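To make this tangible, this section ends with a sequence with its structure tokens:
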Amino acid sequence: MAIKRKDGDVQPGFRWGKFTTRIPGVHVNFSLPEMIQGGLLTTATGGVVAALTMNFFNVPFDVAWSIVLIQLFWLWFVPVVLFGEPYAPGWITPALPLVIVFLSGFTPGVPAIHAMIALTVCLSAIFLFFAVTGLGSAFFKWIPVELRAAIIFAGAIAAFTAEFDRLKTLPITLPVVWGVVIFLMFSVWFGTAKKNNKFFNFMASMALLVGFLVAAVVGSITGELTFNIRWGLHIPQITEYVTAVSPFFTGWPAWDFYVQAFPLAVMIYVFVFGDLVLGNTLLEEAGKTRTDEKIEVDNTKSHIILFIRNMGQLLSAGPFIALHGPMWTGVQVFLTERYKTGRQNLDSIYSATFNWYWPAFILIFLVPVVTFMQPLLPVALSITLILTGFACAYISLSMVKTPAAQGYAFFVGMIIAKFGPAWGLGLGVGLYLLLLIKYVPGLMADPDIIKSEIVKPDIIKKG
């Protein structure tokens, strides 16, 4: 039984500076529903990174699977257990399509590894800069909403383009799986029906897992997927993995890699700050219902933790293609809604984030789980990118309202997706100044002055 929290207090733990370390079973209770769903989904989605590692870092499956264990340490233990972040941590998923496009410009193996090292260093430097200066909020305000929409829309274009090309290898399985997952997550009538039907609600909450099961069935029937389920324990080949991808074995990239990576790192930071804003909003809304717990949110602390997670994994085991971000958005929304149902279901927000991840530490060692996931890795990657593209598309379209802004977002998004972040940022800034800027000193009147002037009646008559 964990230490009981007094109403209105912060969840107990070992306080050290800005951070709080909480031990499961001592400071936080166990929660079976989160353990079952989270363990399965965390293991399944972890396979996505293994697939990406195989493709871009040119390592075999048995070696690539080690990344699932390594990333769990930096994904869950460091931010939740060690530092006490209130978010359900995740990858920078909206940026993943752009990262894939970036890495596709390099030969698989050491060149792609060097490109990812450079991107990780650049992004980590941005995290550290904003942690030290506290200028994160100001930077986000400097980026026009139209350019933010273009960057997000570029993620949608990159995701859809990559997955439509993948149809050549799984022409039946992928469309069926896409249809099932998108239906469960975004269907209007199903969204209404699940509110009054426990089974439908359960299916929606397990949409990713349902997609994997559908892929296994359809892929087996069509012959597009072949399974060879084995039994036993799987020992991750961590030494082989580190030797293959660590900068201390592959060497550090040349200066030109950093130059190419920096514009993309700036774009990725826009996604990260957006996640922080969304995460803070969700927790603030939950706090209105759950007055029994005080949830501490500190953006400066979050920037420090993001720097430590990304550079920590880079220095200990090599670059991480998905990159560590503040929040797994879908899981954060799901867990926050469950948290709002009351203390009898979830004692603390940390009961949710603790229990969602740790069972995966056990599942990844089980050979039946590993061998079942192996043929499904392309499907796992595809589902992740299609959902990311779908979400990026509707979010970006909702951000811009005028015809000029919508056309700008679409055009600049295409430039970013097709020609890279450097061209995208350059043209994006230039076109914004030409098309969308509202006030140019010396060439037009300040709109605030215009609003303050009173139009005389005789002028109206002459007009």
Q: What stands out?
A: Residues 449-463 have pLDDT under 50 and may be disordered. Strands lie at 14-16, 19-21, 90-91, 324-325.
